[in-house]
Structures are given as C-alpha cells and as structure tokens.
# Entry
Amino acid sequence: MLPDSIPTVRVTARYLTPDGTPMSGSVEFRPPSLLTHSAADVFVGGPTVARLDDQGRISVVLPATDASGWNPVDWTYQVTEKLAGLGQNRAYQIALPAARPAVDLADTAPADPNTPHYVAVPGPPGPAGEMGPVGPAGPVRSVNGRTTPDITLTAADVSAIAADRAGVAGGVASLGPDGRVPAAQLPRSRARSPRSTGGPAPSPSPPPTSGR
# Structure
C-alpha cells in the first residue's frame, strides 16, 4: 500500500479481438530504475503487471508521475502489452499526471504501429467546446531530399535530357517504334553491310585464265 501522501492514478483498458472476443494476456507498467520519494521516505521500483480478466479488462492504481518529491522528476512509465495471438509485444511510454486521477489506455496509447515509442502526456480537459489554435500546414511531399509543400522538378532532378538532344549528332540516341535505335543514328563504323541487312550477295569474281 502506497503512502497517502503520494497521489495515484487509476489506469484501465479493455482488449478485444476484431470479432469482439475478449483477449488474454497482461500489461506491464515499469517506472525508470528505482524511484525515491523524499516526502514519504520510500523507494518505488519494479514492474506492476495487470492481467486481463475474462472480459479483456485491466484496472490498476499507479503513482502519479508528476508528484512533488520524486527523484528523478519528470519520469514516465514504460508500458508493455503482452497479448496472446499478436505475435509481437507493443511497448511505449506514458505519463500519468495527478490532474487526471483516472486514465484509459485507449486515450493515451499510440495508434500508429510505426511510432511505438510515442510519449503520451494527457493533461486536464479544457472548457467544453473550446477549440485550440490552428497550426500551420506542414510539409507533405519529399523528393530527392527536398521537403516543401510544393515541389517543381527540373530535368536535372530526375536525370532527364533536353528534348532537342535526343536523336541528333552529339546528343543521345532515341528509340524507334520497335524499341530499337534507328540505323540512321548508329555510328558509321557500326553500319551493317548489305549481307548483314539481307541484301543481295556480291557476284563471285571469275576464275583466272591461263595464257597459251
């Protein structure tokens, strides 16, 4: 039992499969190393393991992370979900401020599997209907290491050549309708002989005659 001078937060969650079947497993909450609370003269450490009940629910009471007297200060819990059937455990960090005495993990856990170490720091709810300021639009495109809202690509960006250099002397050969380089664009030293192009073979020379 924690001393009454340390504020706590009740953490709840429910895990279901896509068809609504309760999942099984456990959720582990681990603070960093060993905590010291000077006002209560206690050390707090080690994991707290909450096992899912037959409805797939957990409910656990944990010390608030922002209570005065903690050493270190501004710490977070590492949450590790060990659920049957998923194949891989998910781990992430959360803060549990005393201003919210009850928190559901569905409101704090990261939904994007590509950001498993997202730090969720829930704060007290604001006045009903109050909207926060709208931030500026962020970059949405990235090409060749450039990230701006709008990108105009040049020929150099995509290693392209100018149209007037295709199929001309000193430029770059183009392809014909058959996907081959036209004979007119081949170097003269590589031009094919009439025999190689299927033309008539030259007439054989008459045999030499001997004089009498």
